[in-house]
Write a structure and sequence with these properties.
The chain has 465 residues and is mainly α. Helices cover 42% and strands 6% of the residues. Helix 2 crosses helix 3, helix 2 packs across helix 5 and helix 9 crosses helix 11.
Length: 465
Amino acid sequence: MATPIIPESIRVHLGSPRSSAENVTVSFPDYIKNVASSEIYSTWPEEAIRANVLAQVSFALNRIYTEWYPSMGYDFDITNNTNFDQKFIKGRNIYENISRIVDDLFNDYIRKEGTVNPFFAQYCNGTTVTCDGLSQWGTVPLAEDGLSAFEILENYYGNDIELVVNAPVADNLPSYPGTPLAEGSLDENVRRMQLYLNRISANYPSIPKISVINGLFDENTENAVKAFQRIFNLDTDGIIGKATWYRIVYIYSAVTRLAELTGEGIGYENLPKRFEGDLSEGDSGGQVVTLQYFLNLISFFNSQIPGVDVDGIYGAGTKNSVAAFQRFANLPQTGAVDKITWDNLYGAYKGTVDYLEERQLIETVNTQPYPGVVLRRGDTGPSVLAFKTYLNYIASYFFGLPSLATTPVFDTRTQNAVRQFQQIFSLPATGQVNESTWNTIADVYRVLREGQQRLKGQYPGYEIS
């Protein structure tokens, strides 16, 4: 996979992604200076400012590296809508000390250990809006207590991050190689697509695994491409042209959470369960995120319901999935969501969650019993490693859960993952692992592990990677 570069410029859309708004192109350092001057205060301690700038650089680079917006057909790299991205005010004044700090940091970014991609450094102001990422106002007392910028970032993002410094600066060129990839092609671009398709197949198991990742576009690669194209309503020609390339890039980014779920700044803890109005193709926002989450959870246990991208946009894929659910539930197949469809969806979602919480288990999958003490941030030991292992397996099926480093350390990222799990399964969101949380994690892990055998028996050919 290509090593990230710092782009010379960035294209900013002055509005929400789907709005008819102006695009402006500015140098990348000037973009970060504008964002920092718009998001934080120049009077804050320098280490707090530096921590925020590094988060802003990493956030923007992740959008660029994953080609998040171009992969959906947009002609820009990022928006200035804070429901989706970072605040940017065209023509605003830049604070002198922030300008100096950005000049020093614009080609530094954070990433998770063992990865190459810039970390999607989610953050919020920490006062009117809170989140599981960095609290902008929260960086101030940490800096006043003597923490360095990197230590502040570790406090919020975990101790498995690292700082990349002095990354190269180059033109921000599209990743698509310019010519289609087809059987017989041999280069690094093919290898990249093979890696992406294999990762996507973990969430879409009807895509066959490519057994050898060697950059050669062989028959196995073509079969995987065709399966991908069928799922995502592309021309099933087995060729990776521009449309297929960017759809693969987009789905890969979604399933690996390189660009984590933001919807309109809504996390799973805020997902509304009540019906809030009709939904149909073209809608977007938090209610669509909830709908897509329901559909994905249901689809795992019902092969008649196709999974969807949890992106907050009611597109053709969501419409098709809704129609499939309506067909399954003997409702009018409109592809739109009215109150009757919503209530049936929520009932199916709740029934699935209830199923996961039941202990009708097969004895072949064993988990450790509750250790007898509440586990919380700062704890270490084999019990911490055990439940983190269970959570990592669960996270491969639930987009709302982050992956965790396989270490026996209960760090901030682990605390956030536990809290997200608790919110999904209607447990008190304490971020601590008591007996109820431990047993639910263990139960869900066992059910998902056993689900491979259950689903494979129920639906011939179904296999979970």
